[in-house]
Amino acid sequence: MNDFSNTIKTLLKTVGRQATVSRKNGGEDSFFAVVEQTWKRNKTNFDDKATLTGKVYNEYCEIICPFDVNLKDYGEDDIFIIEGEKYKLCRCERVTVFGKIQCYRGIIKKIREANNNVFI
Questions:
Q1: Local structure of 84: helix, strand or coil
Q2: pLDDT at residue 58, rounded to an integer
Q3: How far apart (Å, rounded) are the C-alpha atoms in residues 85 and 73?
Q4: Nearest to 74 by CA among 58, 93, 61
């Protein structure tokens, strides 16, 4: 029985991006993760939609974290900061092989901050 959790963690440090989670309770966690935009698979579900007050952007990404970063511990109020961009966690799951957690996988949504002069 093979356990690839430490190998995955090492590879995430090599090819992943630095991710910091700013927790609602004031804490902060840092780790390396792989982040990939999900629109590359099905672009029609993620098109921007025009509304009367502006555009609604649907920018979702898949995130893969090491086995020792439990994505299930984070809530909607916790902010993921990856390369200066802010994200919130939408859903997550454990990836298990032979009953052992190898890594965590989740979907995060980019947070767009409004421009103060949006109506000028």
A1: coil
A2: 72
A3: 21
A4: 93
What is the reported pLDDT for 59? Answer: 83
Provide the phi-psi class of 4: left if phi over 0, else alpha when psi is between -120 and 50, else beta.
alpha
Higher pLDDT, 54 or 76: 76
Mean pLDDT of 90-107: 92
DSSP 113: P
Contact 39, 21 (CB under 8 A): no
pTM given for the model: 0.78
DSSP of 92-106 = EEEEEETTEEEEEEE
Listed residue (109, 110, 94, 108) closest to 8, CA to CA: 94
- For residue 60 the two structure tokens come to 């979702």
Report d(CA 65, CA 74) in Å as an integer.
Answer: 13
